[in-house]
C-alpha cells in the first residue's frame, strides 16, 4: 500500500522501557542515524541510579529522548511528540510528560495482569482506548506486539525465547527508523561490529531491526511516514558527541597543545566515570589514568603528577569535590596546575546520582577553608565541553592554579552534532618550566617570585639541578617560599593569590551579548543571564519570546570566576536581569553580591533540564513588566503554535 | 560490554633496583651530608628522635650516589612531616595522611626520581590509613619512613593508633579503649613487598635498613621507633636500654637463626623463635628446644605468613619486646613500572607510524561516524 508522507520541521521522540530493555542503545542508534541524515539534534538520556531496578516497576524505567529538526535547535524538547513504551511501567511513568494528541507506540506483549499491577494499573488501559473518558483517549495510541513479532522474526536463529525477546528494542528502532526515514546503514554496521563474536545474536538483532522497518512498510496500522529535512548548518565535518566524550577529548587535546603528559587521578563516580573510561584508551597520547582508592587519593596523585611536570587532572561529581576540598586548597597554596572536573548531579549528599543539577557552583567557588580562590569554567553544551576543557587547561597551566571545570549530568550524557575543530585552530598552551636560567645572580632559586603580568610563580618540577625547593600547605614567604608565620606576609600572600586569579579576567574576551535590536538603538530591557547547561533551554525560551515580537537579550557565562571584566557594564545596560538556574539561585547570589544589581532568579531543581516553554513564560512576564505591557495583553502563543507540528 | 575472565599478560618487566632509573652523580663527584642540609632552622623539640633520623638520612643519602635534584621527599602532617624542609632536595609538605597518594602520582609520572615519603603513626595509620595500605598493595616504587612515637605530638599529646590500650593521655583521662595497630603486621597484611623496623637511636641499623629500602624496587615500608621526649618519653626504653635490649630486641637477619637474649655457653642468645603447633611463632629457651628447632629468618619467602607471625611478637602494650630488622623483602611487579609500560607500548605502536600528536589528535576527533557539510 502507498503511504502518505508528511513534512515536519521537528520531532521529539522518547524511547522508554525497563532498564534492561536497551533503551539507551536504541536512542543512541536513532540519534546516530538522525545525525548522519543531517538533522540538528539534542538528546536527553534519563535512567535510574540502580543498574537493574526491579523489573517492570516505575523506578526501573529508563528512557532516551531525542529532539531532531530541520533547523538549529537548542534543547532535547519539553514534551515528546512520540512515546515508544515497551511495558506498562514505561507508559505510566512517561504519560504525564506528553501533550494531548501525542503518538504512543506500545509494546502490548508485557501488558499482563502481573506487569500491570507492578506498574500500578488496576486494569489494562489498552482495553479502553475507545472510551472517551479514558486516560489514553486524548492520545494517538498504537498497540503493537513488538516482542511477539520479534520472537517470530528471529526464530530461525535458534535463540532461547528470552534471548530472542531481547532483540525487541531493535524491532522498535527499525519501526521508528522507517517512520522517520532514517538511514539504516550505520545501525547495521554497528550491530555487525558489536556482536561480531556472537553470530546468532548479531543476526537476530539485524533481522529484528529490518523486520521492524518492514513491518512499518507493510502494516496498515501506520499510514503516515514523516520527513524532516536536514538542517542547514555551517560547512565542516560533524559528529554526534556527548559531553563526557567531548570533555575527555578536550583533555587529550590540552595534552597535545601543551606537550604535557596528561595524568588523570580519579575514583569512579556517576556521572563522571565515562571520562576515566575514555581517557584510559588514550595512552598513545601519553595519557596516564590512575584509578585511586578514593576521591582524595585521586586528586592527591594528580597533584603529585603536576608537581612532577604533568598536566594533573581529577574527575568527579559533587560528593567527590567535597572530599577533595582540602587537596584543592593544597594546590591553591602550592600554586600547581590542576584541573578538577565536577560533573554535577542532584545533591546534597548522594542525592540523585543520575540526574542533572547545577548546585555545585558555590561549592566550586567557596568550598575550601581559608581564602582559596579557584577559577571556575563551565561548558554550555555537550560539544562545548571540548573547548571548556582546553580553556581550563590554559588557565591552570598559565596561572599555576587548580581550575574547577563544572559540567553536569545533562551535558555529560546528552549529545548534539559537533563541528570537529581544525587542530591548527586550537590554542597553544605554554608550560614555561623554570630552568637554571631562572636562578638569581647569587645562584638562588626563588619559587615564589611571580611573573609581572600573570602573577604566576615558576613551575619547577624535580630533576633540574639548582632548583631544589620545598613547597607545602603552610603559608609561604613571598619570593623564597619558605615557611612564614609573619602577619604582614600572610596578608600579602592572601591578597596576592586572589589578585592572581582576578588577573585571569584580563585574558578573557568580552562577554558576548545576544541583543539583536541593540545595534539599531532598539536594545532590550531584559537580559537573561545563564551559565552551564541551561544555555540551550534559555536560548530556546528567548527565541520563543522574540518570535512573539518582544525584545530580550541573552548572555551566557563561560567563566564564573573570575567574571569577564565587562560583565558589570553589561548588567548596567539592562533594567531587569533574569538568571535561570538548576539550583536555588547560586549565580544570582554571586551577581547580586558582586554588582549590587537586583537580579531575579528562575530556579528549578527537579533533576531535569529547564523547559523552554516555562522559561518563555517567565521571560515574557519580565519583559511585559519592563516594557510596560499589561500582563493580560502578553501573547506568547505565536511562538508556541509555530513549533507545534501535529 | 563483557569483561574477559582471563587476566591480560602484563608483560612484567624484569626486576631492577629501586634507584636504577634515577640519574647518578657524574664519575668522581660525591656529595656529603652537608649538601643535603637546607638553610632552614630545624625546629623539633630538644631531644626529639627526629633529629637522629634526619642526621642519619642526611648522612646516608650521599651513599646512594644519586643526583640530588632527582630525590624528592614528600610528607603529610605532624612533627615528622616537617622533615622535607630540612633536606636540600625537592620536597612537598602536603596534607594530613595524603603523602602516599601524592607520591604515587609523582612516582608514576616520573621514573627518574627517587621518591621518599615521611610520615608518622597518626598521619600514616589514622587519617591516611587507606592510602598507606593501597600504596603497599600496589607496590609503587617509593620508600615510606613511618616515624612511630606512639603518640600525637603536634596536637600536644593525644593517643595515637599505635598507643597501647589503657594509655592515659589528654584525650583519654581514664585510659584509651582503642586497640592499637601493629604497623608491620598491617603492612604485611597488605602484602607489602618490603617491610622493616628500626630504631631512631641505632644509626648503623637505621642506615642499613634505609639503604636496603631505597634499593628495593616497590613500596618499602620502614617503621622507625622514635622517642617523643615531651609526650611519650621512655616508650622505647626497654629496647634502648643497655640492660634490657638483649632480651627485648628480636633481631631479624635474613638467612640466620633468630636468636636473642643473654648469650648462652655458645655465645649466642639463649632465646630463639620456634614454630608453634597453631601455626604461629613463639619464643623458647634454645636449651629446651634444641638449636635445630630455631627458625631461620627467610625475608625472601613469597608467603608473608611467617613474617606476619614474627611481627605478632611485638608487644601491643608497653614495649618490652619487639622484632627489629627486615621482615620481608620480595620482588613483585611495581604499579608504576607497569603503568608506564602500558603507556610506552601504546606510544611505541604509534611512534612506528611517525605521525605527529596533532595529526593523531585530528584522526581521533574525526574518527568514527562523521558527516561533512559543504
Automatic annotation (TrEMBL), chain A:
GO process annotations (BP): response to oxidative stress
One Pfam family here: POR
Domain Pyruvate/ketoisovalerate oxidoreductase catalytic: start-end pairs: 20-212
Keywords: Oxidoreductase
InterPro entries the record matches: 2-oxoacid/accept_OxRdtase_asu (IPR022367), Pyruvate:ferred/Flavod_OxRd (IPR050722), Pyrv/ketoisovalerate_OxRed_cat (IPR019752), Pyrv_Fd/Flavodoxin_OxRdtase_N (IPR002880), Pyrv_flavodox_OxRed_cen (IPR002869), THDP-binding (IPR029061), Transketo_C/PFOR_II (IPR009014)
Gene3D superfamilies for the chain: 3.40.50.920, 3.40.50.970, Pyruvate-ferredoxin oxidoreductase, PFOR, domain III
Domain Pyruvate flavodoxin/ferredoxin oxidoreductase pyrimidine binding: 262-478
GO terms, molecular function: magnesium ion binding; oxidoreductase activity, acting on the aldehyde or oxo group of donors
Top-rank lineage group of the source organism: Bacteria
Protein name (Swiss-Prot/TrEMBL): 2-oxoacid:acceptor oxidoreductase subunit alpha
From TrEMBL, chain B:
Alphabetical keyword list: Oxidoreductase
CDD domains named in the record: TPP_OGFOR (cd03375)
MF terms (GO), sorted A to Z: magnesium ion binding; oxidoreductase activity, acting on the aldehyde or oxo group of donors, iron-sulfur protein as acceptor; thiamine pyrophosphate binding
Domain Thiamine pyrophosphate enzyme TPP-binding per the UniProt entry, residue ranges: 77-224
Name of the protein in question: 2-oxoacid:ferredoxin oxidoreductase subunit beta
Keyword NAD among UniProt keywords: no
Keyword flag Metal-binding: no
Top-level division of the source organism's lineage: Bacteria
Transmembrane segments: none
Bias kind Polar residues: ranges: 1-20
One Pfam family linked to the record: TPP_enzyme_C
Coiled coil regions, renumbered to chain: none
The species this protein was found in: Nocardioides acrostichi
Chain spans, region Disordered: 1-32
InterPro entries linked to this entry: 2-oxoacid:Fd_oxidoreductase (IPR051457), THDP-binding (IPR029061), TPP_enzyme_TPP-bd (IPR011766)
GO biological process: cellular respiration
